[in-house]
Amino acid sequence: MELKKLIYTVEDGIAVITMNYLKNLNAIDEQMADELIYVFDEAEKDPNVKVVVLKGSDRAFSAGGDIGYFYQLIQAGGEVNMDGLIAKVGTVADGMKKMSKIVITSVCGAAAGAGVSLAIGGDFMICADNAKFILAFVNLGLVPDTGATYLLAKSIGTSRAVELAATGRPMGAEEAKALGLAYKVTTKEELDEVTMKFAKKLAAGPLLSYKNIKKQVYDAAYADYKKWLDETEIPTQRECAASMDFQEGCKAFIEKRKAVFEGK
Prior knowledge:
Helix content is 49%, strand content 16%. It has eleven helices and ten strands. Strand 1 and strand 2 form a beta hairpin.
């Protein structure tokens, strides 16, 4: 596959996946989702890959969904159907947890919407002190996707998961570390060095042990993850995406005004 929105490299046993579509701050559309599925599969199959690093740019990890695209569809009177996209990013989310190799996410700047889900979806998250996590779905009249609600409920408890999802408030790097979501916080300037140093340490470790630790944890905590993604996340997002509230939220975001929701 020709990669148009990602850069994929393998060196010294470390596969680095860089989201590289700064035009819309690494927003995740179906093309990027397809490319993510492809490179994670390549990393899983490649015996030379021992550890995987997922990163964004200095400006942003990922801005989440492509709201501008949705806005254009709405303005043209078209239907916004996210089922295909949600299914694909769900495959990525489950794949990150299920794959036999440890995944490190390296986060600089904003991670919004589905970007939060990808950031917390690895096995270790290392972030710069300027990292900001925003479950912005509610501001558009949507629900979190790419596994965010599932992962947060499992990791920080249902009350905190509901609070972050329902308010859409920003969460900084230090709070993410205090909640146990981030493994380490460093400076923007040192993020790559710190990430790669840790990746190299893991790559020199007992890979068979890591593989089976991941299998144990997946079976203990995530065995129903794909089922939940397919049977809960897609239908709930479908209902929200078909609502007038989503149209209003999307228009308000692009038009830089406060949304007026009516619950329908």
